[in-house]
Each structure stands twice: as C-alpha cells, then as structure tokens.
Design brief:
The complex is a heterodimer of chains A (about 170) and B (about 475). Chain A is of the alpha+beta class and about 170 residues long. Chain A contains five helices and six strands; from the N terminus they run E-H-E-H-H-H-E-E-H-E-E. In chain A, the strands form two sheets. Chain A has a four-stranded antiparallel sheet with strand order 2-4-1-5, covered by helices on one side. Chain A has a two-stranded antiparallel sheet with strand order 3-6. Chain A starts with a strand and ends with a strand. Chain B is mostly helical and about 475 residues long. Helices cover about 65% and strands about 5% of the residues of chain B. In chain B, strand 1 and strand 2 form a beta hairpin. In chain B, about 45% of the residues are buried. The chains are: A alpha+beta (about 170), B mainly alpha (about 475). Chains A and B meet through strand 2, helix 2, helix 3 and helix 4 of A and helix 2, helix 7, helix 8, helix 9 and helix 10 of B.
Chain lengths: ~170, ~475
C-alpha cells in the first residue's frame, strides 16, 4: 500500500527556505524525509538543518594509513627481502625513507578522500532520481515525502510562503 | 573661521563603481552565468580550428617525428655529450614541473587563505597543473633514451627477486610526480562535478552523454555538497605540502650530487619559489588569452589580473632573494670551481642568456608591476609574464646545462648546444600543452560557476558611515 507521496517545492530565493522547512516539520515531516537540492552549497546552519556526521575525514585518515604501511613495505620490507649490504651504508637509511613515506602517505590520503566522496555520495548513480534541471539554473528544490492525504495542505502552505511551484516531481535519469 | 565639512558621496563615483570593478559584487542570475560559460565552451570558429591544426602538426612533428627518430637512432642524435649529460630534456622537465605549481598555488593556497579573487581563476589554473605535469612526466621517458626500459622503475621485483632501489632520488622523483599528478587531477575533477552537472542539464547529444558520465549522477543534495566541501578542504590542505615536495625533490636531483653549483641546501626553497613565480606568471598569460578568445570578460576582470600581478611581483622579490643568497655564498666562498662558474655565467658563453634572465625576472617585473595600470593592462601584463617565463626557462637552462660545462678539472670542461631533435621535441611538448588546454577548454567549464555564485551570495555592499564598502559574509 502506498499512502505517501513525494513532492518538490521549487524556490528561487534562499530566504523563505528555512521557514518552509519549519512548516514541514510542524506538519509532521521529519528531517530525514526532506532533501534540499541547490546549485550552490548552503551549510546546514544556513538552512536550519541538523548537522550531518561526516565520515570522510576518517576515510581519508585510513587511506593515509594504508599509504604509510605501503611505504613501510617498499622502504623497509623490500631491502630485507633481498639484503644487499654495502659497506658503511645502512640497509634502511632514514632520510630517504622519510621522503618516500611522505609521498606515499599523501597519495593514500588524496586517493582515499576522492574514493570517500564517491562512497559517501553513492556515486556514480545514473538511475532515475527526483530532480529538476532548473536546480543548476539557481532554483532551490525542497523534496519531501508526506502522507498522500496531506498533499493539498502542503502545497497551499508552501505556496503561501513563496514557493514558485509544488509538484510531484518526475524521476530523471541523470 | 568656520570649516565647512564636505559631505562624502553616498555612493561610489561612477568610475569607481564597485559593481563594475568586483565580479563578486556584480551578481547576475545563475542561468545567465551558466550561459556565458556554455557559450564560451561552444565557441569554435576558424581561429580555433586553425590553432588545433597547427598545434597538432607541431605535436606530430615534435613528439611523433623527432622523438620517434631519437628512439630509432639512439641518444646520439641529441646534443648531449661528455660532460653535459643533462640537456634541454631535463631543463624542460624542471620548467614544466614549475609551471605545474600554478594550479595548486592559485587554487589551494588562495582557497586556504580565503582570497576571494581566486574564485573565477581556479579551474583555469588547475587545468594548467594537470597538463603541465603530463608534459613534464614525458621528459624522463624522453631523456631515458631507451624509453621501453621505463618499467624497471615500476615497484615489482625482477626475475632475480631484486626490487628497485626506493631510496634513490630517481624513485623519489617518480613517486612525487605520480602523487602530484594524481592529486592535482582529482583536485581538478572534484570541484568540476557540479559544473559538469550544469553542462549535462544544458546539453544534448554526445556532449550530454559525456557530461552525464562525468557528473556521476550529481543532483546538488545537501549531503553531496557536504561531502564535496569537506573533500575540497582536505585536498586544499594536503596538496600544498605535496606541491612543495615535488619541486623540492626535483631540486634534490641536483642537490644530492657533489657537483659544484648544484650541491646546495638552498636549492629546495629556491626551486619552489621559482616554480611558483613561473607558474603564477603562466596563469596570467593563459587567462589573458582565455579571456580574450573565449569572451569571458564578465568573469575575468582587471581586479583578477591586478591581484595576480601583485603575486608575481612578490615572487619576483622572493626568487631574487634566493638567487642572490645562492650566488653570494658561492662568490664569497671564493672556491676555484665556484669562481669559474660565476665567471662562466657573467662573462662566458652563457653570459647573454644570464643577463637576459636577470632582466626578465628582476628588472622588468620590478620596474613595471608596482604600477597598477600595468597590472591591469592586458598587453602590459601579458608581455611581462611571457618575459618571466622566458627568464625562468633560461634560469633552468643555465643551471642544468651551463653548470655541467664547468667541472672540477679543466679536462672535464665542455660545450653544449641543443640539437635539432631536442629543439623539435621541446616545441612539440609545448604545443602538446597548448593543444590539451585549447581542446579541454571546449569540454570543461573553465570558470567554476558555482564557486562564483557562492561568492556573489556572500558579498555585498555595506554602508559604513557615509561610504558604501564591499563586505563579505562567512557562511561556514
């Protein structure tokens, strides 16, 4: 049984958006059922939305650790696999080791940060999604799921607060 | 005696209207911003196709013909002879690595310090970084001679279970360049995603297919923006030390030898400063051409070139400081070979180049860039920045090939003249860089529209007393 519906309100100005979100909350829509689409980044505090826990720094740090361990293998592991002792020279000299360790740690950090963005944003996803191409032309979209019987009520409330249109959005293949 | 106070103007005088001066105070609807950038990408007249044809021919001649000939005939066709075993290939390598510092410096460092003028110029300079690194990365292969032996550097053991020596400066070089190339390409791509999504929404046919792939399904949700911003911040901070490390390691290729003139602890910061000096100058040169040919005058304004001009002047000071510190130490030491090297530069066969370098890197920037009019004049800044890069190329040429002509014992002195093959390969690689940039400029939105709009949202004119002054709000 499908007793909920998805609506998208399009707004051409940021100013009424936080109030619209308050209205949705007052009508029983939880923050988890609301998504804001925009062409520029607005931090949560600007929109009046709860702060999201960000795992990306953790993913980046893990990548850096993998890079560090790889460098340890190349720096220390490979000379020990086939030791060639040269008179007066250490098998694992520290200054050159530092150079390689730095480069590989940074490579791990940078690559994992990129992969982290893909993972966290579930990219790439080209399947049908609620979207409107006018978003990249500066419109702000408020997409939310509400009980089907509240559709008219939501539309009236959001239009009164400055929405240009409130419609059941099409799912676009992106 | 009564003093009649003169009322300050309520608004700026017409010629100083901050809206005309500052891009971020001159907002236009997002759709219009998008259209300007998309129009620039779709503009490909006769001049564009002529440029692409000529550049492709030069690439074919230089990299297909000359490099192919060198691979077939061997390194004997290059001008390198005992004692000068590092010629223009290594000079070009150092030069292009220097150019690659442009993007990171302009984008990452200015982002970290929240220099607002960076917004429309970051993408154009990040592209330079990636393409310059591709060109730079070719040179160790060209210089190798037996290019097909490159895989010996790849980290896996050979049939005798021996691994490459990772403690060799050659391996530092390879790893640093790979790290920087991967890092800077990802750093170019990440902020590009929202703009290719914009291009996707406004394109049809094969372009839409391409942008659809590149946009990865971007919709602009809060979560997507949140992850993107966090990633850009991490990248901006992480790529800066990588940038410093790359040219420092390139300088250590020289510094780690016992060669007089090269064995210097100042080479690291000296090379990095020179790299940023030439890189930022190249950004100005390229953006001036882009502004004119792609009609991006709305985004790229005199204020941006004014700011870049100031940076170039500052880096000219810094480069001069390191140059002089290195020179003075050698000169004051009075060691015989060092003295000979100094005489060789000031009075020997490379003297004309050496003086030209000083003129291009010190005299001209110092005499011109203090002047606001020169910094804001497209032709003025164009000529100065072209001059800086000629000067910086000469500097690398003298360091690489000049210093090798004078060694500890006179029997080991020599002369170096680049051969036609070396010259053609150099022209081919320069053409490749320009070709990559020209072609990419028709596929990649050269101005980060979302960053510009973000800046326009946060900038406003605020009344303080009787004046209206530009003011910026912090969203984060």
């Amino acid at each position: 049984m499908n007793d909920t519906t998805v609506l998208m309100a399009l707004v051409d100005d940021l100013a009424p958006v936080p109030d619209m979100l308050d209205t949705l909350r007052e009508k029983g829509i939880g923050d988890g059922d609301i998504a804001i689409l925009s062409g520029v980044p607005y931090p949560e505090r600007v929109l009046g939305r709860p702060m999201n826990w960000e795992r990306l720094p953790l993913i980046s740090a893990s990548g850096a650790l993998v890079g560090f361990l790889t460098s340890m293998f190349l720096n220390a592991g490979t000379p020990m696999l086939y030791s060639i002792h040269v008179g007066g020279q250490p098998l694992i000299p520290l200054p050159p080791t530092a150079v390689l360790t730095f480069e590989l740690t940074m490579m791990g950090l940078l690559v994992s940060t990129f992969l982290g963005v893909l993972w966290e944003s579930t990219f790439p996803t080209f399947g049908p999604k609620y979207y409107d191409p006018r978003i990249t032309d500066g419109e702000i979209g408020i997409v939310f799921r509400c009980p089907a019987h509240q559709t008219g009520e939501m539309e009236t409330a959001l239009m009164a607060q400055g929405a240009q249109e409130v419609t059941e959005p099409e799912e676009h293949v992106l | 005696m009564s003093v009649e106070a003169k009322a300050a103007p309520l608004v700026w005088p017409e010629e100083e209207d901050p809206r005309e001066e500052h891009l971020l105070l001159d907002p236009r609807p997002r759709a219009e911003l998008n259209q300007i950038v998309l129009d620039a990408m779709h503009r490909s007249g006769v001049g564009f196709w002529l440029a692409v044809t000529v550049l492709s021919l030069l690439v074919l001649i230089g990299l297909g013909g000359a490099w192919g000939y060198q691979i077939y005939k061997g390194m004997g066709v290059a001008g390198i002879r005992r004692p000068v075993y590092w010629g223009v290939y290594i000079t070009n390598f150092v030069f292009w690595i220097g150019i690659s510092h442009s993007g990171t410096f302009v984008s990452a460092i200015l982002r970290v310090f929240k220099a607002e003028f960076r917004r429309p110029i970051t993408r154009g300079s990040e592209m330079m970084t990636s393409f310059a690194l591709i060109v730079a990365g070719m040179y160790p292969l060209i210089h190798l001679g037996r290019t097909w032996r490159f895989y010996w550097m790849v980290p896996y053991p050979n049939q005798r279970q021996l691994w490459p020596n990772f403690h060799s400066p050659l391996m530092w070089d390879m790893l640093a360049i790979f790290t920087y190339l991967i890092g800077s390409t990802l750093y170019l791509y990440l902020p590009l995603i929202p703009d290719v999504a914009m291009a996707r929404d406004h394109s049809t046919g094969w372009r839409r297919k391409l942008y659809r792939l590149l946009a990865l399904g971007w919709r602009g949700t809060e979560a997507e923006w949140h992850h993107l911003r966090t990633a850009i911040t991490i990248f901006a901070f992480a790529i800066i030390p990588v940038m410093f490390s790359v040219h420092t390691i390139v300088s250590w290729d020289f510094g780690m030898t016992m060669k007089v003139g090269w064995h210097s602890s100042i080479f690291g910061p000296y090379f990095v400063t020179g790299a940023i000096f030439s890189g930022v100058s190249a950004v100005a040169t390229v953006l001036l051409i882009v502004r004119k040919t792609m009609k991006l005058e709305y985004f790229l304004r005199p204020e941006h070139f004014d700011a870049i001009g100031k940076l170039i002047l500052i880096f000219s000071f810094a480069w001069t400081y390191f140059f002089f510190a290195d020179y003075l130490t050698e000169w004051y030491g009075g060691e015989a070979v060092g003295k000979e090297l100094i005489t060789f530069q000031a009075h020997g066969p490379v003297a004309p180049l050496w003086y030209l370098m000083l003129i291009m890197n010190i005299v001209i920037p110092w005499l011109t860039l203090w002047n606001r009019r020169v910094r804001r004049s497209p032709w003025g800044l164009f000529l100065v920045t072209i001059g800086v890069n000629i000067g910086m190329y000469i500097e690398r040429y003298i360091i690489v090939t000049g210093f090798l002509q004078r060694n500890r014992l006179p029997f080991d002195w020599g002369v170096y003249n680049p051969s036609l093959v070396e010259v053609l390969i150099s022209i081919g690689s320069l053409s490749l860089f320009i070709l990559l940039y020209v072609v990419a400029s028709r596929f990649i939105p050269l101005v980060p529209v979302w960053e510009v709009q973000e800046g326009q949202i946060t900038h406003s004119l605020r009344r303080i007393g009787r004046a209206l002054v530009p003011s910026v709000a912090e969203l984060e």
